Amino acid sequence: MMKHCLNILSVVLMFCAFALGTYAQDIKAQEEKKARLEREIAIIDKQLAANASQSSSMLSDLSLIRKKISNRKALVAEADRQVRRYADSIYLTNREINRLQVRIDTLTSHYSRLVMSAYKNRDAKVWYMYMFASENLGQAFRRFGYFRNLSNQMKSEASKIRDMQDELEQKKEKLAQMKKESEAVKASRQKELDELRKDENKADGVVKRLQKDRKKYQKQLADKKKEVNALNREIARIIAQAMKTDDQKKKDARKTQVDMKLDGEFSKNKGKLPWPAEGPVMSRFGKQYHPVYTNLELPPNNGVDIALSKGAEVNTVFDGVVSQVFVMPGYNQCVLIQHGNYFTLYCKMKGIVVKAGDKVKTGQTIGTIDTINGQTQLHFEVWKGKSPQNPEQWLR
């Protein structure tokens, strides 16, 4: 029976340890998410401030503001979760305090009776007379044991009361701290809500201004389509050139072996590759529609566009060989890196520090981000042969 109880206790303790570990990991993940959202908002604020001084594209402003609104909503949702978590903890701590108080009251009452009993028998002569009046030796030992146990019990009960009072004070301090932190989270949440309303008003204002001049923005859209199509044609040409025929591969067996090794490693790292730079994703892979004229289709995006801080460094996501460095209208300097049968493309850069034929390592800096038409955004693509891939499925 004892062994069975010990086994159950072990399982309970293991479960508690696991639950505490999971809770700690969850808290850490939420704190990291909150910090990332706040960093992204800071990046967007800088770009909006720069755009205001340059009178740049309003469509770009709208995209930035809407991304900021999305992040604000995520922060508010995170604050709501924190407030609920604090409310649950405060409720449970209050229950523990009440339980401790009841226990202390019970012990104090019991201790008072012990003290009263000891007070009534405080005269040692009475104790001795009571023992000597015993009918036999056994009764005398029992009476002696009673007085001795009374004294020990009083000490034990006093110690328990002191320990519980200390624990009660700790619980009350913990409760006060949790209430303080909960109020801070509520204040932060309210601040985010106020900022969210301001951002939504800004977005509405930009939409109204965009709606006034549809022809102007349709022309901008047509120009953008030309730039995107030109980039896609150039990428397809470079990749086709890079993917050698079987006869060409035989002439360079060593390079083929390296390429295939890299290809195998790249393909196994789907969802694990590091981001080329840290920032919010402004435009995602695939078909896009105009944020105001919702029936107007934008040029399809073969990659993602990531908003960055001005002058941010751009890094490679995997080992490879620089296939080509080139310049495209609307995209400035671009770098195409080959990883066997896979390719990664980095555009809208300046200060490129690599050249065609260079071998690069994961995380190696290849240049810095440029600001084009008020946008400081990295355009990043992943290709498998001649097929564009969704980069977000490959990145961490």
Give the SSE layout.
Layout: H1 2-54, H2 58-120, H3 124-132, H4 137-212, H5 214-242, H6 246-251, H7 253-267, E1 281-283, E2 286-289, E3 297-301, E4 303-307, E5 313-315, E6 320-328, E7 332-339, E8 342-350, E9 359-360, E10 365-369, E11 377-384, E12 387-389
Antiparallel strand pairs: 1-4, 2-3, 4-11, 5-10, 6-7, 6-9, 7-8, 8-10, 8-11, 11-12
Helix-strand topology string: HHHHHHHEEEEEEEEEEEE
Query: Number of helix segments?
Result: 7
By DSSP, the count of extended strands is 12
Task: Give the averaged pLDDT, no decimals.
Answer: 75
Please name the CATH topology of the largest domain.
Helix Hairpins
Task: Return the structural class.
Answer: alpha+beta
CATH class of the largest domain: Mainly Alpha
Shape: elongated
Q: Pick out the low-confidence regions.
A: 1-6, 15-20, 122-128, 253-260
Helical content stands at 55-70%
Quick recap of the structure?
By secondary structure, the protein is α+β, with helices and mostly antiparallel strands. Helices cover 63% and strands 16% of the residues. Helix 2 packs antiparallel against helix 4.
Describe the structure.
With 396 residues, the protein is α+β, with helices and mostly antiparallel strands. It has 2 domains: 33-211, Helix Hairpins (Orthogonal Bundle); 246-393, Glucose Permease (Domain IIA) (Distorted Sandwich). It is 63% helix and 16% strand. The protein has helices at 2-54, 58-120, 124-132, 137-212, 214-242, 246-251, 253-267; strands spanning 281-283, 286-289, 297-301, 303-307, 313-315, 320-328, 332-339, 342-350, 359-360, 365-369, 377-384, 387-389. The strands form 2 sheets. Strands 1, 4, 5, 6, 7, 8, 9, 10, 11 and 12 form a 10-stranded antiparallel beta sheet that branches. Strands 2-3 form a two-stranded antiparallel sheet. The longest helix has 76 residues, at 137-212. The relative contact order is 0.10.
